Amino acid sequence: MKLELNCVSKQYSQDFWALKDFSLQLKPGVLGLLGENGAGKSTLMRIISTITSATTGTILWNGVDIFQNPDAIRENLGYLPQDFGVYPHLNAVEFLEYMAAIKGVHRKEAKTRIEELLHVVNLYDVRKRAIGGYSGGMRQRIGIAQALLNDPKILIVDEPTVGLDPVERVRFRNLLSDLSGDRIVIFSTHIVSDVEATAESIAILSKGHLLHHSSPDELLETVQGKVWEWNVSSSEVQELRKKWMISSTVRSGGGVLLRIVSDESPSNDAQLVSPGMEDAYLHCISSHGKVRQ
Ligand SMILES: Nc1ncnc2c1ncn2[C@@H]1O[C@H](COP(=O)(O)OP(=O)(O)OP(=O)(O)O)[C@@H](O)[C@H]1O
């Protein structure tokens, strides 16, 4: 099972490329697609889902060109878009039956599958309640259930954790991780901690360019020996921001504990500390700061 993206680009206007020469090979497991707002994540996901066409490049699903032959990927695809809308008056079972009909899943098969999926996403007990009364996290879980109706080999979820409270976020990313198995799961987010725990590989996208693709450990390795903590007084912080890349500030005692990503020690008083994923992401984005369309 292999999804190969070769130099995929999307041009929206004469001088604006939302995606430029994006190349990646994907195998089963969770890919965390990390990038700020406007980085091009949704554009990429819509292209893979064959909803939007690419301007140039190719995507091969098990060797078959999906732009020439979109059905090859569509029948293997589950997609949860960012702006997933539900029918508030339907209950979970009615909604999933409706979605199964649209996807052409046979009625009898759909019944068993829906029952099974309601357990997987932990909504079985509330299956008869109107979806309009569900919390944000419950809605995202019904969204995942609809994306899984055809037991897809590729599951694409676009910023599913936006608006979820911390408990629901953890529950949702654990669910994605459980679902990966022999599937390719592509999970986009701008929240670093979302991908840290669940993704087998992380792709960092910025201004339409793929900046980095590796395992989480390899990404962390890029900032090994470059993360420092330094206690300063709060009046110094603003000035230090101009000079150093500060990944976090924490009030401590009368001062502020800065976390700085830098090749060199910012001060004799600074201490080298273990890097975190947030530091690595920041380092990656800023060291490619000159990337432009
Ligand atoms: N249909 C469109 N026409 C013109 N520009 C578009 C269109 N869709 C997206 N864009 C622009 O392309 C860029 C990438 O958008 P995209 O939605 O792919 O980013 P994203 O990483 O998913 O961001 P977000 O997290 O905000 O959804 C943005 O600057 C966006 O404004």
From TrEMBL:
Annotated GO MF terms: ATP binding; ATP hydrolysis activity
InterPro entries per UniProt: AAA+_ATPase, ABC_transporter-like_ATP-bd, ABC_transporter-like_CS, P-loop_NTPase
Domain ABC transporter: 3-232
Similarity remark: Belongs to the ABC transporter superfamily.
Name the record gives this protein: ABC transporter ATP-binding protein
Xref: PANTHER family: ABC TRANSPORTER, ATP-BINDING PROTEIN
Protein's organism: Brevibacillus parabrevis
Keywords: ATP-binding, Nucleotide-binding, Transport
SUPFAM superfamilies membership: P-loop containing nucleoside triphosphate hydrolases
Pfam family, one: ABC_tran
